[in-house]
């Protein structure tokens, strides 16, 4: 299947590692012109070189961007436009908020999660939509969490902020579909990333079990009996953000090997 991504201008935020990096890698394989961002220039440079080497695509760039900083978000979008003339695809991504229960969280924790995991998506989307309208359309995919379908234990901040992303995408789908802009949300189940390993370590300590035991127990609950791979998750995002997707918008998809039981 031709995904019609060759030469398309793509922004992937928080993409120096993890699911963001895997997503940028898949876009690069499809021949897109990809701009990635995160806060660490050294890590970004290393990631860009890795993507170039593994895909043979040299149209990969980076810019440092704190997703809580409006000016830096604006600069990121402007760089993509200066390099490629527009923004055809925006992949909204940000690091997950701290784990913890309701009474663990301070006002500062709530403000941080709101800015990082919801307001940043609003700001980047607001910045790219005028370019997409001018150039006849585009695709926006928000990376969220399986908490868009089912609440997760000990992750109250994610359980609160991620559904807001779904509401945003649903609303935008109604407002910009006539401009040929498609907006969707994708949440990972248990995908083997540094973030999951970090959360597993926290949970293992709370339960006073080894991380190996916790991992085995988690895999048993997944119908496919294994953690997902970052590239498996990324492929779903790339399809939704590609020219092959012409009619799916306002939807929420969980890539989880069948783990989430909610309808």
What is the percent of helical residues? 40-55%
Structural class category: alpha/beta
CATH superfamily membership, which one? NAD(P)-binding Rossmann-like Domain
Overall shape? globular
Arithmetic mean of pLDDT: 96
Mind telling me the C-alpha Rg? 18 Å
Q: In total, how many beta strands?
A: 7
CATH architect. name: 3-Layer(aba) Sandwich
Q: What summary fits the major beta sheet?
A: 7 strands, parallel
Q: How would you name the oligomeric state of the polypeptide chains in this document?
A: single chain
Q: Output the helix-strand order.
A: EHEHEHEHEHEHHHE
How many helix segments?
A: 8
Short précis:
The chain is of the alpha/beta class. The chain is built from eight helices and seven strands. It has helices spanning 18-29, 41-55, 70-84, 107-134, 156-176, 194-207, 211-221, 230-240; strands at 9-12, 33-38, 60-64, 89-92, 138-143, 181-188, 252-255.
Account of the protein in words:
The chain has one domain (9-189, 229-255): NAD(P)-binding Rossmann-like Domain (Rossmann fold). It is of the alpha/beta class. It starts with 8 loop residues before the first strand and ends in an 8-residue tail after the last strand. Strand 2, helix 2 (41-55) and strand 3 form a beta-alpha-beta unit. Strands 3-2-1-4-5-6-7 form a 7-stranded parallel sheet, with helices on both faces. It contains 8 helices and 7 strands, in the order E-H-E-H-E-H-E-H-E-H-E-H-H-H-E.
């Amino acid at each position: 299947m031709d995904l019609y991504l060759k030469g398309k201008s793509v922004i992937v935020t928080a993409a120096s590692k993890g699911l963001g990096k895997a997503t940028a890698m898949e876009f690069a394989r499809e021949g897109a012109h990809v701009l990635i961002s995160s806060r660490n220039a050294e890590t970004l440079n290393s990631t860009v070189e890795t993507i170039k080497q593994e895909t043979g695509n040299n149209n990969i760039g980076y810019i440092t961007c704190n997703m809580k900083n409006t000016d830096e978000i604006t600069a990121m979008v402007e760089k993509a436009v200066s390099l490629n003339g527009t923004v055809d695809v925006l992949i909204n991504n940000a690091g997950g908020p701290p784990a913890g229960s309701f009474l663990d969280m301070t006002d500062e924790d709530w403000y941080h999660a709101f800015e990082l995991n919801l307001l940043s998506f609003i700001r980047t989307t607001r910045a790219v939509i005028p370019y997409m309208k001018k150039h006849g359309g585009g695709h926006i995919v928000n990376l969220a969490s399986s908490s868009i379908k089912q609440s997760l234990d000990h992750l109250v901040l994610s359980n609160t902020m991620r559904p807001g992303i779904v509401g945003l995408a649903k609303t935008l789908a109604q407002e910009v579909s006539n401009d040929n802009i498609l907006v969707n949300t994708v949440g990972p189940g248990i995908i083997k990333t540094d973030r999951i390993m970090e959360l597993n370590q926290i949970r293992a300590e709370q339960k006073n079990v080894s991380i190996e035991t916790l991992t085995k127990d988690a895999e048993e609950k997944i119908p496919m009996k294994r953690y997902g791979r970052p590239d498996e998750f990324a492929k779903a995002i790339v399809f939704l953000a590609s020219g092959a997707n012409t009619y799916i918008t306002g939807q929420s998809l969980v890539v989880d090997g069948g783990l989430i039981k909610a309808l």
